[in-house]
Amino acid sequence: MATLTKNPNVNKWVDEMIALCKPDKVMWIDGSKEQLDMLRAEAVSTGEMIKLNEEKLPGCLYHRTKPNDVARVEDRTFICSRKKEDAGPTNNWCDPKEMYAKLTPMYDGVMKGRTMYVIPYSMGPIGSPLAKVGVEVTDSIYVVLNMAIMVRMGADAFKNLGDTSDDFVRGLHSKADVDPEKRYIVQFPEDNTIWSINSAYGGNVLLGKKCFALRIASYQGKNEGWMAEHMLILGIEKPNGEIKYVTAAFPSACGKTNLAMLIPPEGYTKRGYKVWTVGDDIAWLKPGEDGRLYAINPENGFFGVAPGTNAHSNYNALASTRKNTIFTNVAINNDDMTVWWEKLDNNPPVNATEWKGEKVNGPEYVAAGNKLAHPNSRFTAPAENCPCISPEFNNPKGVPISAIIFGGRRAKTAPLVYQSFNWQHGTFVGSIMASETTAAATGAVGVVRRDPMAMLPFCGYHMGDYWAHWLEMGKILGEKAPKIFNVNWFRTDENGDFIWPGYGDNMRVLDWIIDRCEGTVDAVETPIGYEPKPEDINVEGLDGITTETVADLLSVDKDLWKEEAKGIEEFYAKFGEKLPKEMSEELANLKARLG
Ligand code: OXD
Ligand code: MN
Questions:
Q1: How far is the C-alpha of 160 from the C-alpha of 81, rounded, in Å?
Q2: Is the whole-model pTM more than 0.90?
Q3: In this structure, which residue's CA is closest to atom 5 in ligand 1?
Q4: Tens-digit pLDDT profile for residues 339-364
Q5: Is the pLDDT of residue 442 over 60?
Q6: Which of 74, 281, 297 to mutate to test the pocket of ligand 1 (most atoms within 8 A of CB)?
Q7: What are the residue ranges of helices labelled H in 108-210?
Q8: Ligand 1: which of 146, 205, 209, 210 to mutate, judged by most atoms within 8 Å of the beta carbon?
Q9: Which ligand 1 atom is at minimum distance from the Cα of 305?
């Protein structure tokens, strides 16, 4: 099949990949409905995908990965910059020459007997000055069909690139034998190149997402004066129709998709508040012509965790999955060919197939302590399905950001919300982000994991240089920089139960954040930052939460924070000379304020 572009750089690279992988056939993905329908039919006929109930879940497909291939593999993920120090202490590193030499024989002839699909795509709205082009070659139809949801793909993607540019990200993926011992997810930031092999799981193989839009893009952003961040983007519409946009970064399992699609409490919706989703996972941010920071969501769909998603926790996410969605590793209800996962409802299907493919009696299986869906099972859903998708979702300019929010899961230390004193202090607040492990996840409760800006597994270069880039961006933005906040929905009481109701009620905290951005509410200065006066958090209509509870949620325990400061100091020591002096200054200031 003929190439879709005249660009010689693209064609030369694709030819090289064909020569290396030696596929029987090559198919350029033009993004047309006919072509995708043909691939869907082929995937169903080979059993790679299962067709779900056309009436209840129109256009939806099911896929099961190998049990050894169900999540991102951080220990097999590499940043291969030429110099080791450019990858930094938080990334696995290998010399690029060595890595190419190791992987090239693994790709040699790997697609014999298979088709190579060539996927041109744009991260970001086509035509946006913030968008970037990628080309992924893969031997997986599953990848093609997921990419069709997650990115804008097809020949149009080349419009941004033009006929001569070399500025595209080269992604090579082969599922090979899905051998976990030979699995590699490798970024070569200086070559705009990603090589992924022996996995067929989303985050490892949908190369536009974590590999490009975060790891490679964070490196590009540093060099080109913009930022690629692991952040949701949402708009808060006020009763007067004005919309304020915020971004937020949380480590995984802290409810990012839920916050992105929040439904405000009744008191707010009655007054005319509404939340619009621009993105649930990744934001690309760049100063606009007016000097403010603008954000686009480079993706076109949601690759969300299914378990826990239900009409209460995230009505909008669930609604997004009701058509044209791919489900991976959830359970099937064989009576009507629909899907089920833990906490979808309390009725596991009787005639079920669990995620590994075994037919089981759902209620009995669950009662015996088993999970029907894999805890990291996923839905890949088109953003356009989301009932609250922002009208600005496709705006090539992006949306102007008023606030950046960091957060984590902390039982005692972090208060419900605080505001940083300024951008530099806000960068410090992001750098000390941390989450405590939950009992469900590891058995060891309360182990603090540092995850600066939620970018620990996604920063494509030295984290110290990344913080320096943040500080630099603050200087460029000056007075127009977004305000920076930290939130914590996860404080617990003496029984270990969450105090704050979370979900839609997080709107009450966003409300204060927006008021702060507009300068319409004052704050109390504490050693860690500015906090609300308890009475400025609206608790109207909340069951069991009073202004006293809020005061409690806002308390700052100086002894705990002194311990915290020690933990930060230990963490910072890893970064050696690359730790910006401003960050040590901020730590010293925090200690001084704690006394
Ligand atoms: C994700 C992640 O899948 O952050 O979005 O792991
Ligand atoms: Mn993510």
A1: 27
A2: yes
A3: 281
A4: 999 999 999 999 999 999 999 999 99
A5: no
A6: 281
A7: 141-150, 202-205
A8: 210
A9: 3
Q: Which residues pair with 352 in a beta bridge?
A: 333, 360
Helix axes 558-573, 581-594, angle to 10 degrees: 160
Using the mean position of ligand 1's atoms as its centre, give its distance from the Cα of residue 252 in Å. Answer: 6
Give me 542's structure tokens.
């909340």
Model confidence band, residue 252 (pLDDT cutoffs 50, 70, 90)? confident
Domains of the chain, earliest start first: 8-30+71-224 (3.40.449.10), 229-297+393-594 (3.90.228.20), 302-385 (2.170.8.10)
Ligand 1 center to residue 66 CA distance, Å?
19
Question: What is d(CA 403, CA 511) in angstroms, rounded to the nearest whole number?
Answer: 12
Cα–ligand 1 centroid distance for 360 (angstroms):
29
- Please classify residue 442 by burial: count the beta carbons closer than 10 Å to its beta carbon, then call 0-12 exposed, 13-18 middle and 19+ buried: exposed
Nearest CA to ligand 1 atom 2: 252
Distance from chain centroid for Cα 269: 27
Give the whole-angstrom CA distance, residue 88 versus residue 81: 10
What are phi and psi for residue 449, nearest 5 degrees?
-110, 120
Half-sphere exposure of 451 (CA within 13 A, CB side): 24
Is 254 among the residues known to form the active site?
Answer: yes
The tens digit of pLDDT for each residue in 38-90 reads: 999 999 999 999 999 999 999 999 999 999 999 889 899 999 999 999 999 99
Work out the percent of the chain whose per-residue pLDDT is above 70: 98
439 pLDDT higher than 60: no
Alpha helices in 28-76 (DSSP H): 33-46
- Helix (H) / strand (E) element for 326: namely strand 326-328
Q: Each residue of 147-193: pLDDT tens digit?
A: 999 999 998 999 889 999 999 999 999 999 999 999 999 999 999 99
Nearest ligand atom owner, CA of 457: 1
pLDDT score, position 447: 83
Q: 198: which residues sit within 8 A by CB, 6+ positions away?
A: 106, 174, 175, 176, 177, 178, 179, 180, 182, 183, 184
> Under a CB-based contact definition with an 8 Å cutoff, are residues 410 and 488 in contact?
yes
What's the CA-to-centroid distance between 241 and ligand 2, angstroms? 30
Pocket of ligand 1 (CB under 6 A): 72, 203, 252, 281
Q: Which ligand is nearest to the CA of 302?
A: 1
% of the chain surpassing 90 pLDDT? 93
pLDDT digits (tens, 9 = 90+) for 322-336: 999 999 999 999 999
Query: In the prediction, which pLDDT does 444 show?
Result: 61
Alpha carbons 419 and 429: distance in angstroms, whole number: 9
Taking the centre of ligand 2 as the mean of its atom positions, its distance from the CA of residue 278, in whole angstroms, is: 15
Neighbours of ion ligand 2 (CB under 5 A): 281
- Ligand 1 atom with the smallest distance to the CA of 252 is 4
Residue-wise over 197-217: b if at least 16 C-beta within 10 A, else e?
bbbbbbbbbbbbbbbbbbbbb
CA of 305, nearest ligand number: 1
Examine the pLDDT at 441 and tell me if it is beyond 60.
no
Catalytic residue among 254, 386, 388, 517: 254
